[in-house]
Every structure is written in structure tokens, then in C-alpha cells.
Amino acid sequence: MNEKPILVVDSIDKSFPGVKALSDVSMDLRKGEVHAICGENGAGKSTLMKIICGVYQLDAGKMYLNGEDYSIQDPNDDYASGTAIIYQESSLFPELTVLENIFMGHEIQKPILPFLKLIKINDYPTMRRKARAIFERLGMDIDLDIIVSGLGVATKQMIEIAKALTFDSPILILDEPTAALTSKEVDTLFETIDKLRTEGHSMLYISHRLDEIFQIADRVTVLRDGQFIKTEDVARTNRSQLVSWMVGRTLDNLYPKIEVDIGDVVFEAKGISQEGVLDNIDFNLHKGEILGIAGLAGAGRTELALAICGLTKPDGGKLFLNGEEVSFPDYRAAQSKGLDYISEDRKAFGLVLEMSVKVNLTQKLQPKISNSIGIIRKADEESYTNDYIRKLDIKTPDGNFIVENLSGGNQQKVSVAKSLVIDPRILILDEPTRGVDVGAKSEIHRIISGLASEGRSIILISSDLPEILGMCDRVFVMKNGRMNGEVMREEMSQEKILGMAL
Questions:
Q1: Which of 86, 307, 336, 392 lies deepest, with the highest CB count within 10 Å?
Q2: Which residues pair with 477 in a beta bridge?
Q3: Weakest mean pLDDT among 162-166, 405-409, 461-465, 494-498
Q4: Quick check: do 5-247 and 263-338+425-502 share a fold?
Q5: 129-139 in b/e burial notation, b at 16+ Cβ within 10 A?
Q6: What is the pLDDT, as a whole number, of residue 202?
């Protein structure tokens, strides 16, 4: 790694209406370095990356690329200058081929005839040669003519990296690149990052997964509340120190589980089957219990949750609530019996991002807080909103604040509050801490533990094994749509659960 900076960010300020997003932030990136950017949701990480990429314009400060002033007005200029960002959500066109995607907007062209230099056509042979050379560098053998929509998340991400390399970008920004990847896919990505680092590429790496930072990064910069806190060599710090810089305090207990006397069985599933997805699944859930559902991606965990709460229809099986057989023809029927589901994808299925905290939080309550002709009683709406903002410590100026402008952790708390207002006795939480920072994760764990101590029963679906180990009284492990084993709390270990999942 070269000690000379390739990119310098000097005293950057950025404000939005009512919010100071960045204040006097400085950092640098060296040639051949993986530099992690850490901080809680809302710390300013994404804002800083978007300024570097030209999505936002800075209010004050300077940037330098290779020692020269670096000022861009448009994200397309960013690619041309040698900086490329790979977002968490894919930016590929699903109905186009791999080749079309990686050269979209910057196709290599040639004159239609030597003497007609102004009339050009796409030079597909040259693009194919360049694409094959890039994928060979990445260790991938891929059909350039395959439609992107049929590819997996990990492959799409590698295509995003290949697209960035078609610009010969010396600087890559990776925003939560492992959020939707399996452990094997993460290993493949890290091998790719190591190859690119060896070739001299410099990378800014944003992640909430602290273990990844210690595995892949050379240095780490911490932001908090829009301010620069610290840059340190990864080898000279540790997890506890990093967390304390991020949250401004020592986080003693990431998994604040309250020990609860587990009660009788309140919910039972027998023989739940769905063709090609679920195969004869049996399990039960006790009062006050946090029951984990673990397994690899594609094991059928989310599909099971959807089937037992009326969002999809199983082909066979029975459900029992407090010993009595029940059926849920739709989701509303499940809710009426005290069972609610919080989706793993809060942006697509949990929240209406363009609307306020108040509207989102009271959405399921509308029949209860409306008068006989359907007009919402504003006093009741305000009362419920303020009550749950306080109970869950949602960081928002007020109930009228637009959810899209909240940090990821606070969006997740709104999603949980939206469910709690209808007072469910059984709550299914699907990946409740995915994409949230370590401080928000601890708060969400505190909420989950508190709900169980109140006598509610929780089904916790998670790909985060430390979360399963830290929070659950019992865990079922799924594989290929079947229950592959059960582990009690006193017997739990990552090795045991992963062994069953594999």
C-alpha cells in the first residue's frame, strides 16, 4: 500500500433543510488501500460517499484527486474521473444482458466505415474482449449474453464491479456490499477485493458488520452525527473501541436478553407444506419465548413466515392457537387473532417511505381511531404516535417527519412500532436488524427482549448467528424447506447451528 493519498476530503460541510448532515469532515484514501467508513445510521456515511460521487454538491470544503482539485457536478463525471460507486441495491437493468449492462452509457464505438468517422456503431467484438478480460481478472466465467434478471444477488454484485472496471476506475466505493450475500459469497467477494487491492485499486468500504472491517480493511474512519471522530489503522484497534467511537459510549451488551419464565405452548404448526418451498414442517412456540429460525439463504425461512400468517397459502398442514385449530385465509385474519409479521424488506413491504412517521405508525390502527364515517380522530392518532415514538425511542423531530429521511435503524423501529400498536401476542420478526448500525441493533434487541418479558411470543428469523445465539431461548434450523434440527439455548453454538444448516 502506498502511503501517498490518491483522494483527499478536506473540511467538508453539507446541510439539508433542518439537518446538518456533515460538519468539517476530513479523510484520505491511499493507493491500494481498503478504507472502511463506519458510523451509526444517520452518521453521514452515505452523504459523504454521494458528495465524492457527485450525487450531492458540498456546501464547504475541498476535495483533491491525485493532488489536483476534484470537483464534479454530475455522477457521470465521477466515472470519467476514475471513481465508481457500487450501491447496496443493484443499479443494473434486469431485462438487458450482462454485456449491455456493463457498457451501458459508455459503449465502445467505431466508425461505420473508415471514411464516415462521424457515423458510429457499437463495437461489440472489442466490448466482448474487454468484458472477458475483466471477468477473467475477477475469476469469473460468465455468459455475456445472459439476461441479468435470472442471476443471483452475488453475481449481480460482481457484474456491478465489472461495470466499474470498464471505466478503469482506480477508486471503488462499496456500500454495504455483503448485506444480501451468503457466507460463501462473502468469501468470494473478499477474494475479489484482495485481487483488486493487489492491482492497485483503492476502495472505500461501508459496512455495519464490524467483523468484516477487521477482516478486509487496512484503515477505518469513524463518523458520528455528521462529524469526523477518528481514523485509525485496523490493526491498532479492536471491536469494543470501534463501537465506542461510533456510538459515543461503551456498548456493554449488544444482546440485552431478559431471562423469562417460559410459559405454555401458544402456537403450533403441524405438517406445513408448500410445493417446491416447504416440506412437512412442524414446530411450536411458547408464551414469552424468543424462538429463532436459522438457516442459509433459500432455506425457506421467510416462506414459512408468510405461510403461517396468511400472506401465502400452504398446500397442507394445520395451525393451532392456544390449543384450538385456526386458519388464516389472509393476513388480516392472522392479525385479528393476535399474530403479526414484520418483513425483512422494510422499504418494499414494511413502510410507505414517502409518508410521515405518524401515517406509517397508525396505518394498521385506522379502523380503531376513525369515527363512524371513516374520518380519523386526530387526537387519537397523535396520542398513539407520540406514545410509540417515546416507547421505542424513535429519533425523529416529530410524528410529521417523512420516514424516508430517517436513518435505517429508526426506520426499522417505526416498522416495529407499526406492528406493536395493534398489540400482537405473537410477533414474527424477519431479519429485524439487517442493515442497521450496532447502536440501533442493541436498541432493537432491547425492544425484542422487553416484548418477551411482557409475555409476548417472538419468532426471530435471522441470518446473523451471533444474534440468534444472543437472543433466542430455542432455535429451529431449516435446510431446503425442511426443519433440520432443534437446539436449546444451553446447547447453542455457531458450529452446531451452521452444521445443521449445511
A1: 307
A2: 294, 485
A3: 405-409
A4: yes
A5: ebbeebbeebe
A6: 93
Query: In angstroms, rounded to a whole number, what is the distance separating the alpha carbons of residues 270 and 1?
Result: 58
Assign 3-state DSSP to the chain and report helix, strand, coil percentages, each to 5.
35, 30, 35
Q: What CATH number matches the domain at 5-247, 3.40.50.300, 3.50.50.60, 3.40.50.740, 3.90.480.10?
A: 3.40.50.300
Instruction: Return the pLDDT at 279.
Output: 92
Separation between Cα atoms, residue 161 and residue 154, nearest integer Å:
11
pLDDT computed for residue 75 by the predictor? 61
% of the chain with per-residue pLDDT over 70: 94
Is pLDDT at 84 greater than 60 in this prediction? yes
**Three-state SS for 285?**
strand
For 189-237, the pLDDT digits (tens) are 888 889 889 988 899 999 878 888 999 999 999 998 889 999 999 999 9
Q: Can you read off the three cell numbers belonging to residue 499?
A: 452444521
Give me the phi and psi of 158, to 5 degrees please. Answer: -65, -35
Using CA atoms, how far apart are residues 306 and 428, in angstroms rounded to an integer?
10
Contact predicate 471/257, CB 8 Å: yes
Residue with grid cell 405473537, as numbered in its chain: 426
Residues 6+ apart with CB under 8 A from 412: 346, 432, 433, 436, 440, 444
> Taking CA 471 as the corner, what is the angle to CA 468 and CA 476, rounded to the nearest 5 degrees?
45
As a whole number, mean pLDDT of residues 263-282 equals: 93
> For 267, left (φ over 0), alpha (ψ -120 to 50), or beta?
beta
Report, as an integer, the average pLDDT of 153-165: 82
Amino acid identity of residue 340, one-letter, is D
Cα–Cα distance measured from residue 288 to residue 453, given in angstroms and rounded to the nearest whole number:
6
DSSP letter for 462, please. Answer: -
How far is 300 from 293, CA to CA, in rounded Å? Answer: 10
In the block, residue with C-alpha cell 387519537? 380
CATH of domain 263-338+425-502: 3.40.50.300
For the segment 35-56, the average pLDDT, to the nearest whole number, is: 85
Domain residue ranges in the chain: 5-247, 263-338+425-502, 352-423
Length of the chain: 502
Contacts of 446 (CB under 8 A, 6+ apart): 256
CB 13 within 8 A of CB 58: yes
- What DSSP element (H or E) covers 231? strand 227-233
C-alpha distances in Å from residue 490, one per residue of 204, 424, 486: 40, 28, 12
User: pLDDT tier at 77 (50, 70, 90 boundaries)?
Assistant: low
The span from the CA of 126 to the CA of 129, in Å, is 5
Q: Would the pLDDT of 304 be above 90?
A: yes
**If you average pLDDT over every residue of the chain, what do you get?**
86
* Predicted confidence (pLDDT) at residue 441 exceeds the cutoff of 90: no
How much is the pLDDT for 119? 78
CA 495 to chain centre: 25
